[in-house]
Amino acid sequence: MSIRTQVLGLVDVMMRVPPIIVIDEILKIGMGVPIQLGASKTYTVESEAIKSSHSDSSHSADTFATIKAFFGIGSEDSFSTSSPISHRNQAILEHSIENASKSAQTSGMLSNNFNNIMDELANDSLLANMLSITTVKFVVCLLGFLCATCIFMLWTRHLVMVYMFLTSLGLTFLSYWSNVSALELMARSPCILEDLLSLNTTRLLDSGGVIMSLAPHLIAQWVMGMLFAYIHLGPRFGLLQKSMPIIFTSPILLAMLPLPPSIVEKLPVVAGLTPIILTKITLMQSAMEASRTVYNGYQYAMNFVSNFGLSALIENEWQRLNVPNVLRVFWALRILKGGYTLITAESDVPLQLFPAMEKLLVDGCETLTAVLGMTGVISMICHYIGRTFQWYLLTYDNDEEKSLGTVSAVLFYILALQTGLTSLAPDKRFVRLCRNLCLLVTALLHFLHNIVSPILMSLSAARNPSRKRHVRALSVCAFLILMPLGLLYYLWTHHSPSTWLLAVTAFSVEVIVKVLVSLATYTLFLLDARRQFFWEKLDDYLYYVRAFGNSVEFCFGILLFINGAWILIFESGGAIRAIMMCIHAYFNIWCEARAGWSVFMKRRSAVHKISALPEATPAQLQAFDDVCAICYQEMYSAKITRCRHFFHGVCLRKWLYVQDRCPLCHEIMMYTDKAEENTREADIAAAQQAEQPIHLYPRDDANNAGGARHSPERAAEAAPENGAAGSSATSASSNVDDAAANSTNETAAETRPVAVNSGSHSSSSNSSYISASGQPPPPTATSAAAVATAAASNTTHIFRLSQEQQ
To answer: Which SMART domains match (predicted)?
Structure first.
């Protein structure tokens, strides 16, 4: 990415920060609606605690205390800032609300006395005025919120036009203020024109004289006039553009003349008429274009949703607006502003580091936009933490959806909404923020385990000889065990038991168990790699280890659900917490239990089916003298299917997880009564089909010089029953000489491939599949098993066997 692109991207991000600041200020004042007295956004922790405790006590004493708090009644500060009504009227209204509260407590809300008092309140003019003021403030804040949101979502070209318009309007009012200040300065000073005509250099060149004081104003007015002429969007006439700096400085120049004071006072207004008129013309001309832009954006969004979906639209706009970087810059500016306020504040007590950091963090999660900004910063920190561990583990994953930063950002914001972080008092907010960060740390440990666990499995399965990669992965596992232990030791020694501490403990113990399960699996795979023979018990050991880990995770999921239900009912309930509990109950409890039970039943069924099959004797294994057709490993013990095929018991059990048919001949290995009848009918049809001749279709090329091959007789009719139970390689080797005799010198380098369209065959004719294929099988057992597997299927197969294999 070039430097120019980076600079333009930074400029685009900076232009989108002011709308976020406006939205944050609107949310800070509660959208213009008076907030409760106990939730006042003050910076002093002690006073906030006193106010919150006072609010709690008054709420318990008065049923209608929320009504008084909503309308700002009961506090001189809030009342004086919200409306200019006298204290007498305030006392009367407060007395009426208290009477209504007492009447509701004694007689109930359906009593006549309570209804009469409520009728009086409905006809009260003071309450009506407060309602109207609140409504107006809410509407103004809502319009400001919508306008700021629309400006934030504009394209860069339209955003530049908006800033040019606002800048030209701001220059107009700044020029007016500068002219008024200059005229007040000139009114208190001697006449400048007389000094100029008399060449009174003493007063003219005086450093504290009026000329030196007016010089900055004149320079500023000239610069503002040139800047306005350059950026304004109104009609551009040549003479007007050149005279704009003179128009801006004209009040100061005309005030030097002996004019009446009444005319001098109106000079700033007259000078501001020209830029105001140009700005008004711009606003009128841009109104239709702005509405057209909004409509086009709506049409674009609808078309995008109809074609690609809502999630694609959100992702596209998220990237176009560069929302994470905008929120990070906004939060950084907010923290810098708070730090500057703390440094410049006059106080006898010296500024301390930790209290200052606590205050900045509390202010950094005061509103929803501030929480979003903090989420962006935390996301960036977690992203680089994940990248650091990936670099250490010598692995790189660029999947943004599974990135540590993305997942941690979503988790932190959900925790903030779930715990009501923005609505808490500053001292409680800091405690809740620290607790949320502890939960986030435990979640990060789980994410790090998800990174290192596949690496451990790949290292053990691939038998990687690189010790450096093994040591790095094992050191990360040691960190994932020691870090939760240290965190739990600190928390349990410095905090009393609570529901929050129980949740952190459950997450920490769960990550320790997951790491131990991964290490046990890694160890089993390494031991299997060092063994010279096939380890049939490996699958059982792996199942037991993983079942233990999944059972522990399931138990902790139930424990966390009970803990969350306790918090929801007895501590701090909320709609978001209830929704998250439902999601947790479905995905982490119900779905996991259903999947685990399904695996258990499949394994149990497979074990019963395997135990019903006969075990191969050493004599049968010696006569078979082949490998397992599933895993291609030597067989020192095997199970014999009803179709007389030999497999490892463990391999066959894994195969039975998928289907109940033989891997070679696709016969059903376990029959029910209905299945036996269907199988007899299939056997009869297969026998009839076997009587028909097999058509062979040789390749039409230069290598097809030999005579056409004829299908040999079925091996099942010629061979005894014990011969049918032999290996696929042994049964197929009897046809090698016949197939080789039909070959010519031109086909010595490569045997002609023959396409055989085989139908369904009986379960006891494994050798007939290989002989019917018309292909000479290779001498190796592995290739023979592969040929037998391919010949047993119902599709067309083409085999190429070299002379060396023959």
So the answer is: RING
Given a contact cutoff of 8 angstroms between Cβ atoms, the answer to whether 505 and 560 are in contact is: no
Amino acid, res. 782: T
Helix residue ranges, H only, 29-62: 45-61
Segment 448-470 mean pLDDT: 84
| Rounded Cα–Cα distance for residues 334 and 582 (Å) | 36
B/e letters for 599-610, b = 16+ CB within 10 Å, e = fewer, are eeeebeebeebb
362 pLDDT band, cuts 50/70/90, is: very high
Listed in order, strand segments (DSSP E) in 612-666 are: 639-640, 646-647
Tell me the Ramachandran region of residue 394: left when phi exceeds 0, alpha when psi lies from -120 to 50, beta otherwise.
Answer: left
747 by Cβ neighbours in 10 Å (0-12 / 13-18 / 19+) ranks as middle
Helix 649-658 × helix 538-566 angle, to 10°: 40
**Beta carbons of 784 and 626 less than 8 angstroms apart:** yes
Closest Cα to residue 698, out of 740, 645, 746, 755?
Answer: 755
The sign of the torsion formed by the CA atoms of 82, 88, 90, 91 equals positive
Chain length of the chain:
806
Residue 578 carries which DSSP code? Answer: H
State the pTM of this model. 0.66
Distance between CA 194 and CA 753 in Å, rounded? 117
Could you give the C-alpha distances from 652 to 536, 606, 623, 721, in angstroms and in order?
11, 9, 20, 23
Beta carbons of 361 and 433 less than 8 angstroms apart? yes
Q: Which of 367, 369, 405, 362 is nearest to 386 (CA)?
A: 405
The more confidently predicted of residues 709 and 227 is 227
CA nearest neighbour of 546 among 556, 535, 557, 538: 538
The continuous run of DSSP H or E covering 410 comes out as helix 404-418
Average pLDDT over residues 759-778: 35
At residue 84, the 3 state secondary structure works out as coil
Question: Which residues does 123 contact at the CB level (< 8 Å), separation at least 6?
Answer: none
Amino acid letter, residue 250: S
φ/ψ (deg, to 5) at 199: 55, 45
Query: What is the phi/psi pair of residue 43, to 5°?
Result: -95, -15
The C-alpha atoms of residue 271 and residue 250 are separated, in whole angstroms, by: 7
CA–CA distance, 327 with 319 (Å, rounded to integer): 13
With vertex at residue 181, the alpha carbon angle to CA 178 and CA 182, rounded to the nearest 5 degrees, is 85
Closest C-alpha among 685, 689, 763, 691 to residue 724 = 763
- Paired tokens of 765: 């004719």
The DSSP output letter for 551 is H
- Give the model confidence (pLDDT) of 638-675 as tens digits: 888 888 889 888 888 888 877 778 888 888 876 544 44
CA distances from 559 to 502, 504, 637 (A): 9, 12, 44
Long-range contacts of 137-140 (CB under 8 A, 24+ apart): 137/32, 137/33, 138/31, 138/32, 138/33, 139/32, 140/32
Q: Are strands 697-698 and 754-755 parallel, antiparallel or unpaired?
A: antiparallel
Contact 332, 370 (CB under 8 A): no
Q: How far apart are CA 629 and CA 789, in angstroms?
A: 8
Q: Which are the contacts of 766, defined by CB distance < 8 A and separation ≥ 6? A: 643, 644, 645, 664, 665, 724, 728, 731, 788, 792
Query: Is residue 380 a contact partner of residue 372, using CB atoms and an 8 Å limit?
Result: no
CB neighbours of 264 closer than 8 A, spacing ≥ 6?
183, 187, 254, 255
Asked whether 649 and 669 are in contact (CB, 8 A), the reply is no
The two tokens of residue 537 are 């018990």
DSSP 350: P
